[in-house]
Amino acid sequence: MEVLHIIGRRKTSIARLYLSPGCGQIVINQRNYKKYFPQKLLIYKILHPFSLTNNIDKFDLKIRVLGGGLNGQAEAIQLAISRALCKINSENRRILKPLGLLTRDPRGVERKKFGRKKARKKSQFSKR
């Protein structure tokens, strides 16, 4: 099997994933994934598709992620991993699709409107 190149997106984050057979090594932006994501919840989000499909420690991942915050980056990586696992074995789609792991979340930041402090926040009303 050659190296798979898959892209995942979330908010303003873009994750480029290179998946190859190996021993479970995950490198994000030339750093170990446990050092890149200090929170256990974000590590869980990344490893969740592997645990559902029983593919832990079967593939090496090299990930380049740009933009956004840590949560958006973790969810972009999760989408890329889920897409890659479906390309490897079509049976994985049956497991991941009902949980929403193959759906790209379209939500983004609402734009700021003029005359307001933020997208919806108004200045305090004064009666007099």
From TrEMBL:
<keyword id="KW-0689">Ribosomal protein</keyword>
<dbReference type="Pfam" id="PF00380">
    <property type="entry name" value="Ribosomal_S9"/>
</dbReference>
<dbReference type="GO" id="GO:0003735">
    <property type="term" value="F:structural constituent of ribosome"/>
</dbReference>
<dbReference type="InterPro" id="IPR020574">
    <property type="entry name" value="Ribosomal_uS9_CS"/>
</dbReference>
<comment type="similarity">
    <text>Belongs to the universal ribosomal protein uS9 family.</text>
</comment>
<dbReference type="InterPro" id="IPR020568">
    <property type="entry name" value="Ribosomal_Su5_D2-typ_SF"/>
</dbReference>
<dbReference type="InterPro" id="IPR023035">
    <property type="entry name" value="Ribosomal_uS9_bac/plastid"/>
</dbReference>
<dbReference type="GO" id="GO:0006412">
    <property type="term" value="P:translation"/>
</dbReference>
<dbReference type="GO" id="GO:0022627">
    <property type="term" value="C:cytosolic small ribosomal subunit"/>
</dbReference>
<keyword id="KW-0687">Ribonucleoprotein</keyword>
<dbReference type="GO" id="GO:0003723">
    <property type="term" value="F:RNA binding"/>
</dbReference>
<dbReference type="InterPro" id="IPR000754">
    <property type="entry name" value="Ribosomal_uS9"/>
</dbReference>
<feature type="region of interest" description="Disordered">
    <location>
        <begin position="107"/>
        <end position="128"/>
    </location>
</feature>
<dbReference type="InterPro" id="IPR014721">
    <property type="entry name" value="Ribsml_uS5_D2-typ_fold_subgr"/>
</dbReference>
<feature type="compositionally biased region" description="Basic residues">
    <location>
        <begin position="113"/>
        <end position="128"/>
    </location>
</feature>
<protein>
    <recommendedName>
        <fullName>Small ribosomal subunit protein uS9</fullName>
    </recommendedName>
</protein>
